[in-house]
């Protein structure tokens, strides 16, 4: 028990020092148990045992999150679809191991066998991340690699600063496509779902 307390104290010392939780001199790797032991209100993600604390989202981020989630939910409901759209915070045990844990901004999950009260166990079909200043490297590099390896079918990166959406059709290995906020962007996992980002501004 004391060992876990010391680890948590070390974690917050590193956070206050501006480092990710994985950047310690001992090279410690964290697990899902460390995520679950965080104090209430503290959120973090885990990639290959490296822990990253999550900052509070901006107003723009939340506007986009709510708008996109609502449009996707309405589409699924109107078509009596089986998939579920789940906005953050929602736990995704992306690789079904104890070294990887993420909270995508939006997860669309079509296999209900992956879902329980704790979260999603395995890869969502469609993930949308909304870029924040502190998450740029994570969204465009670390999470892209993780989602591709885990079997996410489609990955969108919504960049409000650059006013564009990058769509990765990971299921078919296609080159990523970039769309401006002035375009209607088609969801690859559905035949006739288009999201109009101009309506979110």
Can you describe this structure?
By secondary structure, this protein is an alpha+beta fold. It has two domains: 2-53, no CATH class; 59-200, tt1808, chain A (Alpha-Beta Complex). The chain contains four helices and 13 strands. It has helices at residues 2-16, 32-36, 59-78, 136-150, and strands at 44-47, 50-53, 84-87, 92-93, 106-109, 115-116, 119-121, 126-130, 154-159, 164-169, 177-180, 184-186, 194-196. A six-stranded mixed beta sheet has the order 3-5-8-9-10-11, sandwiched between helices. A hairpin with a 7-residue loop joins strand 12 and strand 13.
Distance between the termini: 49 Å
Largest β sheet strand count, sense and barrel closure: 6 strands, mixed
Q: Radius of gyration over alpha carbons?
A: 17 Å
Helix count equals 4
Text of the CATH class of the largest domain: Alpha Beta
Strand content: 15-25%
What spatial form do the alpha-carbon principal axes imply? Answer: globular
> Looking across the biggest beta sheet, what order are the strands in?
3-5-8-9-10-11
Average pLDDT for all residues:
87
Q: Give the helices and strands as they follow along the chain.
A: HHEEHEEEEEEHEEEEE
Structural class: alpha+beta
List its traits.
disordered N terminus; 201 residues; 4 helices; six-stranded mixed beta sheet; tt1808, chain A; alpha+beta
Topology diagram in text:
Elements: H1 2-16, H2 32-36, E1 44-47, E2 50-53, H3 59-78, E3 84-87, E4 92-93, E5 106-109, E6 115-116, E7 119-121, E8 126-130, H4 136-150, E9 154-159, E10 164-169, E11 177-180, E12 184-186, E13 194-196
Parallel strand pairs: 4-7, 8-9
Antiparallel strand pairs: 1-2, 3-5, 5-8, 6-7, 9-10, 10-11, 12-13
């Amino acid at each position: 028990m004391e060992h876990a307390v010391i680890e948590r104290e070390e974690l917050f010392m590193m956070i206050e020092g501006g480092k990710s939780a994985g950047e310690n001199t001992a090279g410690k790797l964290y697990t899902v148990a460390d995520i679950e032991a965080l104090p209430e209100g503290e959120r973090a993600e885990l990639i290959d045992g490296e822990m990253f604390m999550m900052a509070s989202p901006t107003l723009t981020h939340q506007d986009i999150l709510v708008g996109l989630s609502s449009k996707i939910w309405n589409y699924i409901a109107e078509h009596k679809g089986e998939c579920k759209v789940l906005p953050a915070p929602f736990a995704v045990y992306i690789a079904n191991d104890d070294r990887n844990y993420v909270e995508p901004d939006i997860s669309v999950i079509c296999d209900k066998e992956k879902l329980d009260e704790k979260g999603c166990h395995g890869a969502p079909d469609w993930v949308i991340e909304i870029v924040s200043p502190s998450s740029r490297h994570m969204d465009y590099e670390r999470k892209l690699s993780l989602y591709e390896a885990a079997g996410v079918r489609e990955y969108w990166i919504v960049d409000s600063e650059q006013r564009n959406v990058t769509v990765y059709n990971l299921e078919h290995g296609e080159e990523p496509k970039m769309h401006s906020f002035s375009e209607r962007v088609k969801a690859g996992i559905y035949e006739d779902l288009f999201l109009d980002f101009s309506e979110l501004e």
